[in-house]
Amino acid sequence: MNSISASQCAAARALVGWSQDELALAAQVSRATIANFESNTRIEPSQRNLLSIVASLEQKGVMFIPEDVERGLGAGVRLRKLELEYSSALRTVIRGAGWDLVFPVRYKGQACQVTIPREIIDDIARGNFPTTAEQVKVVQSRLPEFLKAVESRLSQTAAVPAEIRLVWEDFPVGTF
User: Fold this and answer.
1) Confidence (pLDDT) at 1
2) Is 86 helix (H, G, I), strand (E, B) or coil?
3) CA 106, CA 63: separation in Å to the nearest integer?
4) Cα separation of 107 and 170, whole Å?
5) SS3 state at 52
6) How far apart are CA 134 and CA 138, in angstroms?
7) pLDDT surpassing 90 at residue 64
8) In this structure, what DSSP letter does residue 169 have?
9) 8-17, 117-126, 137-146 — which one is most confidently predicted on average?
10) Does the pTM of the predicted model rise above 0.85?
11) Domains in the chain, start-ordered, CATH in brackets?
12) Could you tell me where the DSSP H helices lie in the chain?
């Protein structure tokens, strides 16, 4: 789901026990963006900000329920069973003439190493970072989007592989 209402945002935030400041930090947006959206001062944040807000809340286990007009049911939120556990400890792996970032996850209890190619990181940040510390910072600032891509990819596999390498097709259109 790419679009949520102001009341869904506030309800989801309350469900996970986050303040507006905590959601803003997790989504890498300003607190004013959250406050203006929830108070209907703005109909909807920018596409990028909204995707980041949704991804951050989904990573905390929120499921957004769309409105069902035919059955007369309104939109809502609920907690879902979290199937992806992760470590935000990123490490560098040298590959050929460059390096990639790798971090461990567990999906449905099964371990998997996730590789984020340097090309994706450089494209997202619109630059070529000479140090791994700068690459790590880019990934950590967008971690909810990466985790959403990982969970989506792993949910489509019959068995959890020992390793996956993220590709552009793993990310919903408009993510970055």
Assistant:
1) 54
2) strand
3) 20
4) 16
5) helix
6) 6
7) yes
8) G
9) 8-17
10) no
11) 6-79 (1.10.260.40), 84-170 (3.30.160.140)
12) 6-15, 20-27, 31-38, 47-59, 118-125, 132-141, 143-155
